[in-house]
Design goal:
This protein has about 130 residues and is an alpha+beta fold. It has one domain: Lipocalin (Beta Barrel), CATH 2.40.128. About 20% of the residues lie in helices and about 55% in strands. A hairpin with a 2-residue loop joins strand 2 and strand 3. It is elongated. The chain starts with a helix and ends with a strand. It comes from Algoriphagus aquaeductus. This is Lipocalin-like protein.
Length: about 130
């Protein structure tokens, strides 16, 4: 009887942890991020965004992390894959994309328009 109780407890804990891990992975990209883009013609750039899930899709607004008065840029679309995202937006008369893939639980790496190195780090507060 003791073995059966232990087995049921382990089964219950396993199902509980499995449920939490699926929930966390679904919204891995949701939340506040700081995106740094390096060596652009205008120098390095830092953008802040808080990606939020609306009707099952991620969306948000990009803002200049170094200039609070700069106009905000609406994210047009976020394409999600299990280990990567593409953030699409319109800036300075051009369609722009930032492709980022998971590096670890709090960091992403990728490129802006396939030309400039981009890194993102999860922020604890927006």
């Amino acid at each position: 009887m003791k073995k059966v109780s232990v087995l049921f407890i382990l089964l219950f804990l396993g199902l509980t942890f499995q449920g939490f891990s699926q929930t966390a992975s679904k919204d891995f990209f949701a939340g506040p991020w700081e995106i740094s883009v390096f060596e652009t013609p205008n120098g390095d750039a830092k953008l802040k965004t808080t990606l939020t899930r609306v009707n099952g899709k991620l969306t948000g607004v990009l803002s200049d992390a170094t200039n609070a008065t700069a106009p905000k840029i609406q994210i047009e679309q976020v394409i999600e894959n299990p280990d990567s995202i593409s953030i699409l937006f319109f800036a300075e008369g051009t369609d722009v994309n930032i492709d980022l893939r998971k590096k670890d639980e709090n960091n992403l790496e990728g490129t802006l328009m396939g030309m400039f190195t981009a890194k993102a780090k999860r922020l604890s507060k927006p």
